[in-house]
Specification:
Elements: H1 10-19, E1 27-29, E2 34-36, H2 50-57, E3 61-62, H3 68-71, E4 72-73, E5 81-88, H4 91-102, E6 105-106, E7 119-128, E8 131-144, H5 154-158, E9 166-172, E10 186-198, H6 204-209, H7 218-252, E11 254-255, E12 258-259, H8 260-280, H9 285-291, H10 296-324, H11 331-343, H12 348-355, H13 357-376, E13 378-385, E14 390-396
Length: 397
């Protein structure tokens, strides 16, 4: 199964795989529902210690042209001893996944009404004193009725609605609501139900109705989901190994200076991505930060960390590519670019158009660099279940 990652966050994942910085992920709350803050780092990376950051911040930022030898000395990257985990998917995991899928079956009865336990997809427009407000509108929001995900009064108002039905729901925001502009105020949400999903029973008929190629029975469906979960685990384990490899060379290399342009560009990118995420939920950047419990000082600190670590990683990647002769446009590069495009389920042209050619080049070169380090490594494979009980181990070169 191909991993499908939104193009918008591709370069962020690139940064995570290259920098192995601290996890800055947070969550925020919109005017009605929980809204995720776009993370600038992946959950798989190693958290940088404050001492490491302090040392990084001591590096001078240089303007204009530079020599790599004046900026960095590569650490040793040949002969790493690594352990790669192969997770064995259990029957319990397969059944839990299937139950999740069963709960996402769309109700076909046009007269069916939304009930507690159903997942409703809806569009809504919120107004206070007849005026729309920031963060109060969505065309495509999922709500599990009974989850308490939305503010009091909203979910109970949706219960009993039919697909296609539109209804006004009156609510009052809590006095201590995170978005101060609406805290304590009464609002009216005009809600339209797009679809209703409800748990189904696993039967051959249900499987056939899904029209999945080559899957017509319950047992075939279980086998397909096991294969899907195994592919996900394999991808996750591979990502963790690759992050570890890059972190090792980050830590073992010595740094003397960093290009100022790299640091400034990364800080700008960080803030622009947060602004874009905020706009996607109809929020200003200040409201977006406030709902995530962040201040401008927090933002400045995170921008600085991101800027320095990206600058560090870019200079490291340049030095590694020079040492190993890795180049954009080479046959090896073209082959890796094709693999990346397939992973993101895009054409090469779409990949560049949606992410920018420079980000794509950095990402592909990083993959090539990690591939090279892995080719020099001695890797031991450990097979484990999700309960972390080791089954067996073996070695591969």
């Amino acid at each position: 199964m191909k991993r499908r990652i939104a193009a918008m966050v591709m370069s962020l994942l690139m940064a995570a795989s290259m920098t192995a910085c601290g996890n800055t992920e947070a969550t925020s709350t919109s005017s009605v529902a929980s809204v995720p803050v776009e993370a600038v780092s992946s959950g798989s990376e190693t958290v940088s210690t404050s001492n490491q950051l302090e040392e990084l911040y001591k590096l001078p930022l240089i303007e204009g042209d530079y020599k790599l030898s004046e900026c960095i000395k590569l650490g040793n990257y040949k002969g790493y001893k690594l352990t790669k985990t192969e997770t064995i998917v259990t029957d319990a995991e397969v059944e839990a996944y299937i139950q999740t899928m069963l709960s996402q079956t769309e109700v076909q009865d046009e007269n069916a009404t939304a009930q507690l336990g159903d997942t409703v997809n809806m569009a809504y427009v919120g107004k206070i004193d007849g005026e729309e407000f920031s963060g109060g509108t969505s065309d495509n929001a999922d709500l599990l009725l009974g989850s308490g995900q939305f503010i009091d009064g909203f979910e109970t108002g949706v219960v009993g609605m039919k697909k296609g039905e539109t209804k006004d729901i009156k609510v009052k925001f809590p006095d201590d609501y995170s978005a101060s502009a609406v805290a304590g105020k009464e609002a009216v949400f005009t809600v339209t139900v797009n679809s209703i999903k409800r748990a189904s029973q696993l039967t051959d008929e249900w499987v056939k109705n899904r029209k999945e190629e080559g899957v017509n029975t319950v047992e075939e469906y279980r086998a397909a989901r096991r294969k899907e979960l195994q592919a996900q685990d394999n991808n996750n384990n591979d990502d963790e190994l690759r992050a570890e490899v890059w972190q090792r060379i980050v830590n073992s290399s010595k740094y003397y200076k960093l290009p100022k342009k790299y640091e400034e560009d990364a800080e700008k990118e960080y803030e622009e991505r947060l602004k874009s995420a905020a706009e996607g939920y109809g929020l200003s950047l200040d409201d977006y930060l406030a709902s995530a419990g962040m201040t401008q000082d927090n933002l400045a600190a995170q921008k600085k960390q991101y800027g320095y670590t990206i600058a560090q990683s870019r200079i490291l990647l340049e030095a590694f590519c020079e040492a190993e002769g890795l180049k954009v446009g080479s046959a090896e590069y073209k082959e890796e670019l094709q693999k990346v495009a397939e992973t993101f389920d895009m054409t090469e042209e779409e990949l560049k158009e949606q992410n920018g050619e420079e980000d794509v080049e950095q990402y592909v070169l990083t993959q090539m660099a990690v591939n090279k380090i892995l080719s020099y490594a001695k890797i031991t494979v450990e097979k484990k279940t999700s309960t972390d009980n080791e089954v067996s181990s073996s070695s591969e070169s």
